[in-house]
Structure formats: C-alpha cells, structure tokens
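Trying the structure run again after the queue cleared.
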Amino acid sequence: MAEKLFSSADREAIIQAIKSAEVSTSGEIQVHIESRCKGEVLDRAVRVFDTLKMHQTKDRNGVLFYLAVVDKRFAILGDKGINDAVADDFWENIKEHMASLFKQGQFTQGLIDGIHMAGEQLGQHFPYQADSDINELPDEISFGS
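Done. Tokens:
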C-alpha cells in the first residue's frame, strides 16, 4: 500500500529533492514510508531512525521524514546535532506546512517542500565541506510494511 501512493515519477522527484538539499550540506536526509504506524508516531519514527542507522552520521545531523499513509500520520525527526542548531519550533513549522499540503492531497509536494526546508537549515549549520564530505546514507526512499 505505502509504495503505491507514490508513482515512480513522484519517487524520483522526492529523491531529487533529497539530493538537491544535500548538495550544500554535510547533513543527511532520509524518507521512510509505510502503510501503518503501530503505537505513537514519534516512537515509531525513533525506531526507524535507529534501524536506518541515522544516528551514526559524523555530525549527528540526520533528518528523517516518516510517513504512515493509511493511518495519515507523519513525523520529522532530527538528530542531536541539527536539533541543537535550529529553533525550538523549526520542526513543527515544517510539519504544519507539510500537513497543509497533505490535506490537499499533495503528498509529493509536501515532502519535497519539507525536505527543502530542512536542507536549508542543514546547509546553514552544517555546510558542505568539499575536502571531507561523503554521502553517509542512501538517498533512496525506504518502505516498510
């Protein structure tokens, strides 16, 4: 179910948004989509964050966009490095923007906008270092059951 919500063109647009956002930062962005969320959405996002080994980035600057499409729940989870750098309401502001697009059925655009918003902050606080930056995590969308 989760994989069917996004066409191959939608998936490619989301992956391109991730790559574009990561061009100017050492930060890492991942998107995980599944059908259902068992339990609290933030708890599930933390488990996915750990499973994807997002906490192992050098600067602790990974950001996860987690969506449970059937349950219509989502979360954005940043690691310690980026959380310490952004304003307290930063993630909530992104969530509100994304939620407004999701309510209009614009799931791909909501994700793309959220990714770009996170990427801007990552670029400000963790600029790309040409001599040492590597892509620490895959840019592909991961899907759960």
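Strands lie at 28-34, 62-68, 73-78, 142-143. Worth checking whether this holds up in the mutant runs.
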